[in-house]
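Hey there, shall we discuss this one?
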Amino acid sequence: MLRELITFEVAGQIFALDIMAIREIRAWTPVTPMPRVPHYVAGVVNLRGTVLPVVDLAARLGWAPTEATPRHAIIVCQVNGQSQGLIVDSVSDIIALNTESLQPPPTAGQDEVMPFLEGLAAIEDHMVMVLDLQALSASGEHPVAA
């Protein structure tokens, strides 16, 4: 079975998300920081009258926070009926992936599966990490827009 994924870059790595979860891709818009939110929540933006929480995907994945510039983008996703934005370095392409070619995520130490990864796929000459949007959103408490 074929799945369509959108690929993007974060901290020099290539990731993908299922295109059906993506509502839009926005040019960078400065966020308004919010008090008492997890370190990976960059803030909120106004999305056509709705307050949209924006997650710094690099920080969420455990890397250094993104120093956002106008070259960055915000991918607006729908998870469990709620919207959130993800800061990414750049959006690359739409790919069709055969689900059988998706490899399970590697273990990290004591049979611990790498968090947030649905799997890995070899696309051309590089590995693409397919993110599990449900796990990415569920394991942290942050505000979400309806």
Observations:
- The chain is about 5% helix and 50% strand.
- The longest strand covers residues 2-10.
